Amino acid sequence: MIRSATTLGKDLIGLEPLSREQIEVILDTAEPFKEISERRIKKVPVLRGKTIVNLFFEASTRTRISFEFAEKRLSADTVNIGAVGSSVSKGETLVDTARNLEAMRIDMVVMRHWSAGAASFLAARIPSNVINAGDGAHEHPTQGLLDILTLRDHFGRLEGLKVCIVGDVLHSRVARSNIFGLVTLGAKVAVCGPRTLLPAGIEELGVRVFGRVEEAIEWADALNVLRLQLERMQDGFVPSLREYNRVFGVSRERLEWAPRELLILHPGPMNRGVEIDSDVADGPHSVILRQVTNGVAIRMAVLYLLAGGSPDLAEAAKSGKGVRP
Ligand code: CP
To answer: How far apart are CA 203 and CA 205, in angstroms?
Structure first.
């Protein structure tokens, strides 16, 4: 079937509004892009002539660098801007910043911002494609997609797969994108954590809630372990980090009680010894670094599709064909 190149629309703000087919198009398009990162010369001329601005108002290692690798491997011209060192530090607004970038004739903006809704606010005001690289506690769609791709790679299916998201769900845009994407694709999703770190009404998103990590381990096929976002917390969310680790930490001893071998994911950065112990993070069932590798392919796929690339031509795009002029 020839699917429309405009399947995703202008922007990628979140997974909540996407259909099953739209998510599957991105996952399937990422497949042929994986191989490019394994080549000696990791470059194809797919986005030659496109100018992409990476606008990161919050710290990032994985997302910022993998977007930049994805853009460079597709031959786009890229510019990186942070809050520090730009005129945002002098009080310039987000829209004025973006309008000035538009005046220099850019094609796409990848943005991380501390405020939920910032990406859709920007997308409504500029003609360039906008990709949300994380906005407050709202969504982090490319992280959700790379987590889902990693699960699909391992299990070969998503329908009926039991995935439990463990930890600080309250502050997590990663949790929301995973929930929206996985539920849409037919997976069974649960969350587990202290009540203080679970949003009120989370069940309405179609997830089960476990109050004990032992219950989650007994139920799940995979655990996606979340970082305690200490920078977004005031006192009182957890009694202490040591107490959190004792009650909710994912440790080898706890996993030994699992009725089946659990796949372990973590979006990073990790607080080792808090939400996850090192022997689990570095253990045989961890796919944490595979998530990072898949992140480049997912971001290549999203950039390619939003630039007008046809999913059916992604294989051909490996040699530079398949993107509209
Ligand atoms: N997973 C993730 O978003 O990591 P960074 O904050 O390092 O980009």
So the answer is: 5
Give the three-state DSSP class for 27: helix
111 vs 117, 162, 228, 303, CA distance in Å?
Answer: 11, 31, 23, 13
pLDDT cut 90: percent of the chain above it: 86
Active-site residue, 63 included: yes
pLDDT over 90 (residue 85): no
Q: In a mutational test of the pocket of ligand 1, which residue from 57, 63, 80, 298 has the highest number of ligand atoms less than 8 Å from its CB?
A: 63
- Distance of CA 174 from the midpoint of ligand 1 (Å): 9
> Could you confirm whether 90 is annotated as catalytic?
yes
Q: Is the CB of 267 under 6 A from ligand 1?
A: yes
Q: Is 60 in the pocket of ligand 1 (CB under 6 A)?
A: yes
Which residue among 140, 173, 176, 188 is the active-site one?
140
> What pLDDT, in 10s, does the model give residues 274-305?
999 999 999 999 999 999 999 999 999 999 99
Ligand 1 geometric centre to CA of 4 (Å): 31
262-270 average pLDDT score: 97
Q: pLDDT tens digits for 140-174?
A: 999 999 999 999 999 999 999 999 999 999 999 99
Index of the ligand 1 atom closest to the CA of residue 112: 8
The rounded Å distance from CA 133 to ligand 1 centre is: 9
62 is catalytic: yes
Written in H, E and C, the secondary structure of 128-193 is: CEEEEEEECCCECHHHHHHHHHHHHHHHCCCCCCEEEEECCCCCCHHHHHHHHHHHHCCCEEEEEC
Q: Residue 203 in 3-state DSSP?
A: helix
